[in-house]
Design goal:
- The protein contains one helix and three strands.
- Strands 1-2-3 form a three-stranded antiparallel beta sheet, with helices on one face.
- The protein has a domain of 52 residues: Ubiquitin-like (UB roll) (Roll), CATH 3.10.20.
- The structure holds zinc ion.
């Protein structure tokens, strides 16, 4: 069986991972990225196709203006129907 190049004991698993890219103060997070992950050390690999898609997203996003929107959760209220 194939073992991890780095720790030599991992097993390769198919997982969906969250990947973040940074340029200076910009951060882009891509969720649900299919990856091969070594279960021991967490080292990740992406297929050529996935890498290409992520690059595309990253390049497009870089050109966009981003506004920050606070995400606020309404505090618990007694009843929705009151
Ligand atoms: Zn490893």
């Amino acid at each position: 069986m194939e073992t991890c190049y780095f720790c030599r004991k991992g097993i390769l698993e198919d997982r969906k991972v969250t990947v973040d890219f940074r340029w200076g103060d910009k951060l882009i997070v891509i969720e649900e990225v299919p990856a091969k992950v070594w279960n021991e050390c967490g080292e990740k690999y992406y297929s050529a196709e996935v890498s290409r898609e992520m690059d595309k997203i990253a390049v497009e996003r870089k050109k966009e203006k981003v506004i920050e929107v606070p995400l606020i959760r309404l505090p618990a209220t007694p009843s929705a129907l009151a």
